[in-house]
Amino acid sequence: MNIMILPKPEIVAGSFVKDYEKIYAESCANPGLFWENIAKELSWYKTWDRVLDWQYPYGRWFTGGKCNIVQNALDRHMQTATKEKLAYIWEGQDGTVRQFTYGQLNEEVCRFANVLKSLGLKRGDHASIYLPRIPEQIIAMLGCAKIGVVHTVVFSGFSIEALKNRIVDGEAKIVITADGYPYKDKTIECKSTVDEAIKELPQVEHVIVVKRAGNNIVFNPGKDLWWDEVTKTQSTDCPTEQMDATDPLFILYTSGTTGKPKGIIHSQGGYMVGAYITLKWTFNLTPDDVYFCTADAGWITGHSFIVYSPLMNGVTTFIYESVPDYPNPGKWWQLIEKYKVTKFYTAPTAIRSLMRYGDNWPRMHNLSSLKILGSVGEPINPEAWLWFHEKVGNSNCPVIDTWWQTETGMAMIAPLPSVPLKPGSAFKPFPGIEADIVDDKGIPVPPNTQGFLVINKPWPAMFLDVYKNPQKYREAYWEVVPTKVYFTGDSAKKDEDGYYWIIGRNDDVLKVSGHRLGSAELESALVSHHAVAEAAVIGKPHEIKGESIKAFVILKQGVTGSDQLKEELKQEVRKQIGPIATPDEIDFVDKLPKTRSGKIMRRVLKAQELGQPVGDTSTLENQ
Ligand code: PRX
């Protein structure tokens, strides 16, 4: 599609960056200076000695600097008018509203940080946060960061095994959870999931439980603590720990090509700078904004762009506890009208599903407060882009399609509101970011040719490492192409104007409704069922979800396949990973295409399933 949507003059006039090409050229001519100037917009206990210490494949940013992201997210606002302003407005599925000014949020964070200290947690310790989308999720993250406790947030949609693996690998001493939470007309239990997950884990000393749904839980005196009870007696003052810029801030697990999720470690200082500026510039964030991001803080989008960056930028963030189509598909539009949301950030899968309900739902609401719309998590098809632009943004709001990853910590390829947009393209690299599209030898491919998306230079919010797996860090990201660049795992094309078009993952990682899942993780959940001998999982294009999950299963000898068994296998995956990973289709098969060394060739399965050419099969064991 060759449409170009030009920015409106008033948007350009109100933009932080009015001339992208000029700023981009300057940033690449002297990236150190560019990032240093951004870092100076934030507050530091001690300025850095060096902007970047790059020793391939490790980049350490702002070395020698002392800071704390919470100092920038909260503390520094306590001396300004921002203290009295709303940091968060939260609306529950039942219509309950909770609001926190920056001052109130700071008090709650201090209280919670003091609880952690009273339980003996200190700088460098690890905590797991397994909370639904409620304010305590954010308070817990900030409370940890404030005193240098490394948080690992686990999305509340994950189930027992997924949670357990993350607690074990992340070496958490404490788990923060809720009794349960409302999800449409059900209550999802969290506490019982935690109980199961930590049953054989003596490392977990305490479980702090927020009361949300009021469902019955098993309470283990001595180990379990009610959030309300432990926080209410604590002081609303707590000194913020002065961290090294290169200290870890959090670990967030994400799926890769093996069955074991990778613990992505992010830093205090570099992450702070990258997250701060990318949201500010891509969304033109200003203090009068009411910003609504529909992600969950259990994912990177929530970490960077619900918690840390909006607070550093001093805006009011609106959070809705539930899903877009409950109680009806007009819910988000009603909330945007009610809270006069100015900046709205969501995922293509949600746009596509709301689009299906027709134009009447957005039309029923006054959405004229909106100024900028954003998209993240998977490629957005031009049709969905245009619907979002026209029916939600009334053709007045730029649609900012931000490409990034858990590993990058910050938006990397994304338009600024002042640039001409092409529906379906994520525009070009953010200033200071050097990207390219290359072949398997690392050589740039010509325009309009598909290749691997790589990042050529280190960036401030780059991850520090894969937790306890530096080999993975090297092999999966820095040694895939021989030119020592960061391999994103995505394929893309660049057009003749230099616009990037992201095609999707080029490894065995699926994007299902924007959620990142590994084929291998799903397969290992399937083979843990007693009836299954082998399994292979592929993603298939899906109109709404982006990709759907199809599993090919070889049953053990003597077991006969049935619909009931398919249902059981689906339940197994839900139990092990979570409802987001439920296979859409399961086929029982006798054989799987494999290499001579026994590796399943999912690529062949996928091509066969989609009726596409199978490609090179020279390594296939059984032609
Ligand atoms: O495939 C890309 C896709 O999401 C992957 C990263 O997933 P995750 O770590 O969960 O982070 C998602 C939120 C930042 C990428 O490798 N992806 C993300 N944003 C886009 C995208 N694909 C196309 N367009 C995007 N805007």
Descriptive overview:
This protein is of the alpha/beta class. It has 3 domains: 309 residues, Rossmann fold; 170 residues, 3-Layer(aba) Sandwich (Rossmann fold), CATH 3.40.50; 98 residues, GMP Synthetase, Chain A, domain 3. Helices cover 29% and strands 24% of the residues. The strands form 9 sheets. The chain has a 7-stranded mixed beta sheet, with helices on both faces. Strands 7-6-8-11-12 form a 5-stranded parallel beta sheet, sandwiched between helices. Strands 21-22-24-25 form a 4-stranded antiparallel beta sheet. Helix 2 packs across helix 3 and helix 5 crosses helix 6. The longest helix has 17 residues. The chain is globular and about 70 Å long. The site of adenosine-5'-monophosphate-propyl ester (PRX) has 23 residues, from helix 11, strand 20, strand 24 and strand 25.
Helix content: 25-40%
Number of helices: 19
Q: Proportion of β residues?
A: 15-25%
Shape: globular
Annotated CATH topology of the largest domain:
Rossmann fold
Low-pLDDT residue spans: none
Total separate domains: 3
- In total, how many beta strands? 30
CATH class wording of the largest domain: Alpha Beta
Rg from C-alpha positions?
Answer: 24 Å
Give the CATH architecture of the largest domain.
3-Layer(aba) Sandwich
Overall pLDDT confidence = 97
What's the topology here?
Elements: H1 9-13, H2 20-29, H3 31-39, E1 50-55, E2 58-63, E3 66-67, H4 69-73, E4 86-91, E5 97-101, H5 102-118, E6 126-130, H6 135-146, E7 150-153, H7 160-169, E8 174-178, E9 180-183, E10 186-189, H8 191-197, E11 206-210, E12 224-226, H9 227-232, E13 243-244, E14 248-254, E15 262-267, H10 269-282, E16 290-293, H11 300-312, E17 316-320, H12 331-339, E18 343-346, H13 348-356, H14 360-363, E19 372-376, H15 382-392, E20 399-402, E21 435-438, E22 451-455, E23 465-466, H16 470-478, E24 486-494, E25 500-505, E26 509-512, E27 515-518, H17 519-527, E28 532-542, E29 546-555, H18 563-576, E30 585-588, H19 602-610
Parallel strand pairs: 4-17, 6-7, 6-8, 8-11, 11-12, 16-17, 16-18, 18-19, 19-20, 29-30
Antiparallel strand pairs: 1-2, 3-13, 4-5, 9-10, 14-15, 15-23, 21-22, 22-24, 24-25, 26-27, 28-29
Helix pairs in contact: 2-3, 5-6, 7-8, 10-11, 13-15
The chain binds adenosine-5'-monophosphate-propyl ester.
